[in-house]
# Entry
Amino acid sequence: MSNRQKEKYMKTRRSWHVLLGIMLAAIISSGAYAQGRGHGHGGHGRDQRNYDRSGKSSLANRVYHITDADSVQKLKMKPVLDKTSKRLEALRASYQKQEKRVLDSLSTQLKPYLKEDQLKKLNDWRSRKSTKN
# Structure
């Protein structure tokens, strides 16, 4: 690998670490906020249904809840939150593609050292991991 390729790789890696750190901080802080208000881990807060992590509106609902936005503010904030949600989804998809490439590389590199049944277990694990994403 040339120096230029190494620099590009390290820059990309740092960027992903920063991005993941920011995303984790946001998730943790929103969870701590919800717990502090009696909404986390089994709490029965009035807006518990807004924290559905599978829906695209969860970011918007979380921001609306945290900021206690009124209906006029929500209308004005919606385009920004929609755009941000799309950007985050694109980042997730990109990350998943990169993760798959890294795990594919891992299997290739470990293949000479593993027995056939061990390699099968590793590939089964990778298959289960990819279906979760």
Summary: Helices lie at 3-36, 58-67, 71-110, 116-132. DSSP finds four helices and no strands in the chain. The chain has a mean pLDDT of 77. The first helix runs from residue 3 to 36.
